[in-house]
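Renewal narrative, Specific Aim 1. Our central claim is that a sequence can be written position by position from structural information alone. The example that follows is taken directly from our test logs and has not been curated for this report. It begins with the structure tokens describing the chain, in the order in which they were read.
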């Protein structure tokens, strides 16, 4: 990297001039580690905002796209709370040329101070979230009063020995006044801006976000962000982290001319795999050196988050907590991908399609949303977005072994149907919890195990798999590729077994992680190795990770 792109920031010589703003990396040490390892261009890495107590945030939908490159989100300041966050962040080894900026929030001066004192030992600096536009009584509510801003900053500065960055909202009459108040309180740097709004966007007559309104980000807010950064630079003399609509080198140059020295890129990364983000920052860096703008071409302006209406035509009860929903039309989806089902008023969750034409879902009751699906009435209007995730591409002429538990059968059924030459291994506690057996037998060689022996082999599905693998020749083993889908314990056991027979690059795992946005922006579905299930998966190559710590 050119020396011109390396810069000093609050006492550290950074490996690069970029930051990924609060949100994408969440509080996950898994993602933080992976980004430290892979993206040196990101010199400042900002955690998701952490508060005094754990917050689940708002129920899904939490994100919508209102035009290409422009989004509205209402995540709801999801975080594990200060105690758990301190435990997680203590595990990090921060490289000498990176700056870990821990974002914090509170509902009072006292809460900011308390969180700051507990987290300051684990980062290079603290970002004070004075800007979130959609969390009642937090963020923006604390950042619109200059006197309160100065008090928060000065109180935190007095309590900690690390630099403090004030993240400001654009939703004020005079952002320069707020910046002066922050600096008067002792702020070492300013971050501007956060999302604008909040705004509401509807689909089919319903507000899309469960919170109804959310913060607006992306390309559209860049003119406001430029204006704010310019006004801040005229008002105060401190480093500025610029955020708001940056998607390429041309944008970076414009913010640099306005006085920023670190450049936050968030919405432009939506929909990118981790590998694509790595490439994006490499190209962006070359753009800055060569005065080109090729990185803009890598932004996923083709992301489609529109909803397709579907109507429920059948709700088939399997057990008290398992049902199969059949809808009235086809939903385009490839094997390995997933879709989100949205029912206004209830929420939104991701599912693998059991069948795409007509669209069928296997549902297990695991929470409030799926509980409602158990008794969903025929005729109910619902909405589907996607597909999301990466379609699987088994090697040509490979023998596929697909291992499933729970709703994982949906993903492996599609594999067998679309690629053939598949042995399906399906495990359940008892016969009553089995479904789609006849259909699965038509597309693959089905092997079933139940814990109680009421159907198929008695015992765990991995025990049956091991017995059958032991009967294969070395030539037969060489042809195998594995796809595992279901609960983490089952997938972990299957991978551990399969590593005895094949190389790890022939094992692919899809685990029932929490997936909220589907496009890699919220960080909820992080795997132990820091990949994000929704964009890097859902099937993850075991060669790059181990599941032993799940």
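The sequence written for that structure reads:
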């Amino acid at each position: 990297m050119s020396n011109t792109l390396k810069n000093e920031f609050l006492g550290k010589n950074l490996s690069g001039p970029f930051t990924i703003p609060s949100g994408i990396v969440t509080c996950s040490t898994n993602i933080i580690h992976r980004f430290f390892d892979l993206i040196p261009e990101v010199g400042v890495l900002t955690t998701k905002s952490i508060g005094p107590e754990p917050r689940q945030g708002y129920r899904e939908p939490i994100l919508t796209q209102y035009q290409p490159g422009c989004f509205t989100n209402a995540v709801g300041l999801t975080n594990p709370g200060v105690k758990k966050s301190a435990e997680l962040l203590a595990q990090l080894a921060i490289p000498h040329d990176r700056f870990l900026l821990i974002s914090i929030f509170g509902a009072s001066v006292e809460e900011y101070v308390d969180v700051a004192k507990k987290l300051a030992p684990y980062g290079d600096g603290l970002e004070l979230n004075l800007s979130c536009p959609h969390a009642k009584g937090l963020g923006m509510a604390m950042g619109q009063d200059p006197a309160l801003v100065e008090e928060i900053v000065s109180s935190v500065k007095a309590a900690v020995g690390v630099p403090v960055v004030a993240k400001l909202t654009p939703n004020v009459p005079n952002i320069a006044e707020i910046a002066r108040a922050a600096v008067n309180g002792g702020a070492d740097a300013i971050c501007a801006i956060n999302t604008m709004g909040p705004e509401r966007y509807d689909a089919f007559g319903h507000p899309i976000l469960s919170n109804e309104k959310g913060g607006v980000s992306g390309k559209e807010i860049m003119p406001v962000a430029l204006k704010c950064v310019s006004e801040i630079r005229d008002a105060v003399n401190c480093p500025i982290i610029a955020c708001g609509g940056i998607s390429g080198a041309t944008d970076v140059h414009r913010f640099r001319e306005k006085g920023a020295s670190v450049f936050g890129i968030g919405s432009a990364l939506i929909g990118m795999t981790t590998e694509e983000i790595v490439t994006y920052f490499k190209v962006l860096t070359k753009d800055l050196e060569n005065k080109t703008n090729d990185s803009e071409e890598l932004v996923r302006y083709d992301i489609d988050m529109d909803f397709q209406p579907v109507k429920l035509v059948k709700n088939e009860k399997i057990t008290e907590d398992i049902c199969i929903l059949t809808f009235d039309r086809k939903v385009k989806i490839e094997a390995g991908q997933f879709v989100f089902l949205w029912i206004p008023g209830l929420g939104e969750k991701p599912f693998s399609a059991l069948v795409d034409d007509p669209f069928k879902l296997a549902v297990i009751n695991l929470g409030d949303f799926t509980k409602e699906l158990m008794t969903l009435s025929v005729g109910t209007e619902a909405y589907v977005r996607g597909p999301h995730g990466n379609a699987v591409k088994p090697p040509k002429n490979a023998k596929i072994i697909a291992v499933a538990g729970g709703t994982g059968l949906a993903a492996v059924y599609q594999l067998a149907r679309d690629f053939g030459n598949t042995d399906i291994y399906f495990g359940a506690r008892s016969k009553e919890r089995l479904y789609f057996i006849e259909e699965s037998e038509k597309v693959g060689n089905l092997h079933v195990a139940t814990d109680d022996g009421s159907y198929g082999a008695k015992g765990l599905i991995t025990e049956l798999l091991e017995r059958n693998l032991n009967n294969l020749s070395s030539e037969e083993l060489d042809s195998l590729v594995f796809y595992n889908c279901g609960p983490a314990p089952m997938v972990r056991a299957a991978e551990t077994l399969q590593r005895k027979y094949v190389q790890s690059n022939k094992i692919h795992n899809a685990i029932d992680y929490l997936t909220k946005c589907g496009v890699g922006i919220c960080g909820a579905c992080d795997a132990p190795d820091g990949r994000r299930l929704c964009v890097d998966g859902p099937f993850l190559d075991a060669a790059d990770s181990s599941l032993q710590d799940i």
